[in-house]
Every structure is written in structure tokens, then in C-alpha cells.
Structure of Kinesin light chain:
Amino acid sequence: MTQMAQEEIVSNTKTVMQGLEALRVEHVTLMNNLAEGSKTDPDKMEIVKKNMENIELGLSEAQVIVMLFAHLQNIEAEKQKLRTQVKRLCQENVWLRDELAITQQKLQTSEQSVAQLEEEKKHLEFMASVKKYDEIQENEDNLEKSRTDPVVELFPEDEAEERNNMSPTPPNQFANHANAGYEIPARLRTLHNLVIQYASQGRYEVAVPLCKQALEDLEKTSGHDHPDVATMLNILALVYRDQNKYKEAANLLNDALTIREKTLGENHPAVAATLNNLAVLYGKRGKYKDAEPLCKRALEIRENVLGKSHPDVAKQLNNLALLCQNQAKYEEVEMYYKRALEIYEMKLGGDDPNVAKTLNNLASCYLKQGKYKEAEMLYKEVLTRAHEREFGAINGENKPIWQVAEEREENKLKNRENTPYGEYGGWHKAAKVDSPTVTTTLKNLGALYRRQGKYEAADTLEDCALRSKKEALDLVKQSKVLGVADDNKRLKSGNSKDDNDDHNKRVHK
């Protein structure tokens, strides 16, 4: 029903109401006349009353219709008003959404700016923290020569002891291993020295972020495929290796190897150094078959670049021999050790510590094959050479410790107490002065004597080794305390390159 039809109904209803109102008035008059008459007709009165009721009912219904129409009009007006409000709210919602999107975009831009400023602030704080070391390094820029490419030792002489007592790499060894075959650029030298210092102290929570920050800066300025990036990757890999994070270290060394091969060439000494470090890592994880070809390739590069009689070639031969020994390739092991011995004795002389170390390694190879006599001869040769260096030529009164031990073994059943071995040359002092290799040789020969049932001789050597080890540990503790004191003094008064070198030597020793 349309709006016009509703109005017509209301208009007709009002007309009907007027007619009904007139009829009601007439019926009231009629009822009054009937009531006043002398003779009242009950039927007529009843009819008039019924008509009056119908008229009243009609009027009531007409009034309801009029009131309903008015109510519907009010509802329609409210409906139109609500529609207008909804439309306005929708428009405001769209406007607010647009404002919110613009505000969010501005907020994101601001957060990015804040993050960038924070990074710049951290970088500036870091550069300020290392700035005090720059003056020390500026004097070295024109004096520093290309570093040699030393070889990382694969395992120490006493492998079990080293694996049970993991300690950080000493500063000068760490530096040599990390930078082998590649000169540290001037822009990295300060950071490099800081990383080495922290790593050698076992402060990896400082060394690792420094390396990562340097890598990020280098990759931004020079790109990922740059030799400086490979150098920092090598340093970070050795830090991870000291933390026993071998998987992370291997990934970094492989990345460094790819960069150095690409930028320096496949036959560069730095490539050989990275190959060797990777082989060492695989060896420490027991992956000897994977490590061997890497070690052989490093050996080939060194022979081509340095010559077949270079001491670093001998060190590489030692590493290769150890890998082969763990695979029971004893013929190759003997060949590599003997060749390394020839190089050391020819280039460095028979008193070089590497000769004793290689002799000791060769003796351990003989032991694994059951060649006890050959191993015993080599152990005695190491101890004899150490004795002669410390106490001079051997004679009836100046005897090496192994000979003293055997004499004590022979005299153990006689009715007299054995003379303390300390009276026969003070051998614990010789072991302390010489090197850890001598201490290891004492223990190895003592174990061999014990295997042969020579318990008195074994006790003599093992007691000597124990004393020398204890005194060596005391010296290391003292040197660390002195080193910390010297560091604090240098930080207050300023230090020189010679001071740093002396401190590194002291800690390494």
C-alpha cells in the first residue's frame, strides 16, 4: 500500500468519524425523547441502545486507525533519520580508515628510521670503543710484512688430555692460524687484534659479535666475494672451533675457501691454509676420510709455492700422517713422518722442537703396529737429545732420565733404597724448560715400560712427567696473572707493538 492510499484511508476514516458523531448525537436525542414520552416503547429503546453501541464501537475503531497512522508516520520519520545517521557513520568510517592507513604508513617509516639510527648509533659506539687502538696500529701499517703461512697442528701430542681439557687457542697461534697466507689489511687490523685477544681469553660472547659486525660491514662495502671477507670468515670459524661448534665452523671455512679460490686463485698459500684448517676441523670430528684429500691438496699447493723442503711442508706432512694413522694406513704414516723429519733436521736442525714432536708421533705409530722396540728407541732418542741440550754430553755421571730409570729397575731387588731421580741431573727442570713434547714422551715411555713389566722404571718416568706438568701449569698461571696486570697497565699508559708481542709470547709459552 502506497503513502497516498494511506492518506486516503485516514481521510475517509475521519469523514466516517464525523458521520458517526452526528449519528451518535441524533441517537442521544432520540433516546431522550423516548425517555420523556408518556409511553416508553422498550423495543425501540433497545434498538436505539444497540445502535449507540455500534456507533461507539465504530468511533473507537476509527480513532485507533487514526492513531495507528500517526504512529506509523512517526516510525517512518525515525527510520529516515536512522538511515541518514548510518550513511553519515559509513562516510566517517571510510574517512577514519583512510586516516588510519596513512598513520600506520607514517609509523612504519618512523620505526625504520629509528632502527637505522639505532644501528648507526651501535656502529658509532663500536668505532669509538676501538678508536683508542688505532694509534697503535698506524705505526704498523708501513712496517708490517706479509705473514708466513704456518700450518695448524692437527692434534697435540697428548690427544686424550687435550680433548678432555679444551682451552682457548693462545693469541699468537690463533692469529697465525686465522691469517695464514694472507696479510691482514690495515682497515681490519685493529678489529682483528681485538677478536684474537678476546678469543684467546675465552670471551667468545664478545669475540663472536665483533666478527659478525665486521663481516656485515665488509660485505656492505666490498661485497661478499672479497679476500677480506674470507679472512674474517676464517677468524670466526676458529672461534667457533674453540667453542666446539664444528658444524658452524665448517660452513664458514667452506665459504672462505670458495671466496679465496675465486679471488686469489686455486694455488694460493691462503687457499692451502683454509684447506688445512678445514682438514683439521674434519679430523677433530673424526671424519678422517673427508679430511685426507683436503690435507693432500694443501700439501701439493705448499710444495709448489714454497718448495718441497720448506718447514711448513713438513708440518703439513705431520697433519697428513696423523690423518692416515687414524685410518690405519701405517706405511703412508711412516713415509710422511720420515720425510717431515728430514726436512726439519735439514732446515731447522736436530734441536728444533718439531723434530722431537715428529719423533714422538712416529713412535706412537710404531706402538699402534706393535713395534715396541722401534718406538722405545725413538722415545729414548727424544729424551737423550733433550738431556744433551740441557746438561751437555752424556757420560758415566751425566745420564739421561731413561737410563736412570732402567738402572733403578735393575737395582730394585738389591738391599738398598734407590737414589731419588732428582739427583741424576734434575730432569724435571729439563722437561719444564724444553717443551710439552718431552713431558708426553716421558709418559709414553713410562707406559711402554709398564707394558714390559718394568714398573720401577715406569714409576720414575711418570713421576718426573707429573712434576714437570705441575710446574708448567704453575708457570702458565703466573704468566696469565702477569699478562692481565700488564694489559691493565698498557691500557692506562698506552702500549707499543713490542709490548703486545711480548705479552703474546708470554701467554703462548
